[in-house]
Amino acid sequence: MGGIGQSGELGELADDRALLGRTSTAERVADILRTRIAEGFFPPGTRLSEDSIGGALGVSRNTLREAFRLLTHERLLVHELNRGVFVRVLAVEDVADIYRTRRLVECAVVHGLGEPPFAVDGLVAAVEEGRAAARAEDWKGVSTANIHFHRELVALAGSARTDELMRGVLAELRLAFHIVDDPRGLHEPYLVRNQEILEALLAGERKTAERLLAGYLDDSRTRVAQAYAKAVDEPERAET
Hints:
Helix content is about 70%, strand content about 5%. By secondary structure, the chain is mostly helical. The protein has a three-stranded antiparallel beta sheet.
């Protein structure tokens, strides 16, 4: 797992410079990098070059280092002495803990919804995004759509703090997804389950949606943890 010297990748990252605006801050840089990590632009184990990324985004070394510090605090990056900053590789125990957090937050959001109708336009768009990606056999795209679905679900709470919490949690989860070698087997079953949750919310059946979501997250935790454990165990065996 090496550096990111490819000019094409850095050119794509340079496109994000417009998101910084004239008042560039470490928080905005961290937000861009968090999104890119979640999308798999920087896979787990990738060393992040200060010169390359700073040049692509047009930010100072100090600003970039502060962004790295923020993302290290969020457990997306790790700093290795005399080696640099790397995208974190999760432990199997991290995956289970991420799902415990998701269950606490996501189910609480659905449980706390008021009276229907619910503002589900974002969920509808995410479901269609997943279907379109599946038709194109773009399983990474299906994974992204699934993350979008759950981000929109949490957004129903109307809480900026909860949104911020889940952005970090879901980005961290993507670190596990990027290592699993069967993305279709991992993500395809949840296209139907997302649709079922959406249909329950469209019908105003909050309790049904909460029950479906809890079952979804429990099953997903088991599947992802098993797949991730297998994926990280096989390279270790090959080295022995």
